[in-house]
Design goal:
About 75% of the residues lie in helices and about 5% in strands. By secondary structure, the protein is an all-alpha fold. The protein has one domain (about 1-275). Strands 1-2 form a two-stranded antiparallel ribbon. Strand 1 (about 170-175) and strand 2 (about 175-180) form a beta hairpin.
């Protein structure tokens, strides 16, 4: 219960930060800068946790990449190609510079460690940057952003934790995430669907839009499952390096990356879904 109280207090702080992010999203440059700094924090935590933060020659290109990719989406309307075009270019330059640095330090750097750093840098930066594309959606950008963060990610995390704590008996992946249970996974997914339905009903009443409910429920189900896969993916990295959390900035939650691990996977997946077929008419 003490741990739950700590998590609750931290969650209120996170809610205040989220509210500030929503306010910042009305001022384009400020929002992109916010995502850039969040990406940099997540990557620093990951690189630091696996022991690479002391090597500035490796950390610096990672942080520069994390800073530039979200900002590059400010200029997507000036590039007559996919919004990912600039990201692909930045990624190419980042990988080239990182691999040259790794080869120059072949005798000191293991390929497995270098690969992990590249993986977390690419996944965190590119995946999380999709929240900017969601926010830039013409009609429903702000709602999509709130849906992804609050309904799909946070609802799954919070209710998976509560359900697992109260009803959890069957371990889901004991070697990767010892506290995760089957009951918690199901409870988190059900909660994500219910919270999404509530959000859609409220949004429909205030915005006068039509909602394809079966499709919305299906998307909520998929995104909740993808979010839990994202959570397990980063837990896999942590267990591989023998660490409990990526950081300790958020009491009861660990670091920023520990809090956003599921969101990082959900965001690009949901953007892809609504690009193919949206459920708001």
């Amino acid at each position: 219960m003490k741990n739950f109280a700590t998590r609750l207090m931290t969650s209120l702080l996170i809610l205040a930060i989220f509210s500030a992010m929503v306010a910042a999203s009305f001022f384009s440059y400020l929002f992109e800068l916010t995502i850039s700094f969040i990406s940099m924090m997540c990557i620093y935590e990951a690189v630091n946790a696996i022991g690479f933060s002391k090597s500035k020659r490796f950390l610096t290109p990672c942080l520069i990449y994390a800073f530039l990719v979200p900002l590059s989406l400010l200029f997507k309307e000036h590039v007559n190609k996919s919004p990912y075009y600039i990201i692909i270019l930045l990624t190419f330059l980042y990988l080239i510079s990182f691999m040259v640095m790794a080869m120059l330090n072949f005798d000191r750097i293991k390929f497995s460690d270098a690969s992990t750093v590249m993986f977390v840098s690419l996944v965190i930066t590119c995946f999380l940057s999709n929240i900017i594309l969601l926010r830039q959606c013409e009609k429903h950008g702000l709602f999509y952003m709130i849906l992804v963060i609050v309904c799909f990610s946070w609802a799954t995390d919070v209710f998976a934790y509560l359900t697992g704590m109260l009803l959890g008996k069957h371990r889901f992946a004991p070697n990767i995430s010892p506290k995760k249970t089957v009951e918690g996974c199901i409870g988190g997914t059900v909660a994500a669907i219910l919270v999404t339905l509530a959000a859609l009903l409220i949004y429909r009443s205030v915005s006068d839009v039509s909602v394809h409910m079966p499709l919305a429920i299906f998307y909520a189900l998929l995104c909740s499952v993808i979010g839990q896969i994202g959570d397990l993916s980063f837990s896999y990295i942590k267990r591989s390096y023998g660490i409990k959390d990526f950081g300790n900035l958020l009491p009861g939650h660990g670091g920023v990356l520990d809090r956003l691990d599921s969101l990082i996977f959900i965001t690009p997946f949901f953007y892809m879904l609504i690009t193919v077929k949206g459920f708001l008419i």
